[in-house]
Design a protein that fits this description.
- Helices cover about 15% and strands about 35% of the residues.
- The relative contact order is 0.21.
- It is flat, with a radius of gyration of 19 Å.
- With about 90 residues, it is an alpha+beta fold.
- The protein has one helix at about 45-55, and strands spanning about 15-25, 30-40, 65-75.
- Strands 2-1-3 form a 3-stranded antiparallel sheet.
Length: about 90
């Protein structure tokens, strides 16, 4: 017997959040400053995405020294006071 749409149990997953990650990556004597927006449910998921990004960006590097400057969730509602007459949020 096949399941109908009513028979299927849909799982409610937590909505993914956007995180801003600012970090420096040092490969050899070259240091590069990065600013990325990554999507994940929690900080551990974002760290996994960051590792994937580093592996993609620095494929030929044998050693990468990474310093995370900030990793924080992006607020859904912008603070309009920061844009006071200069920009439209």
């Amino acid at each position: 017997m096949t399941n109908t749409w009513e028979d299927v149990a849909w799982e409610d997953t937590a909505p993914s959040k956007e995180w801003v990650v600012e970090y420096t990556a040092k490969v050899g004597s070259n240091t590069t400053h990065h600013l990325s927006v990554l999507v994940g449910n929690d900080m551990e998921a974002v760290q996994r995405k960051l590792m994937r990004e580093l592996r993609t960006t620095y494929q030929d590097a044998t050693e990468i020294e990474v310093t995370v400057i900030r990793m924080e969730e992006i607020e859904k509602e912008p603070n309009a006071a920061l844009f006071a007459g200069h920009f439209t949020p």
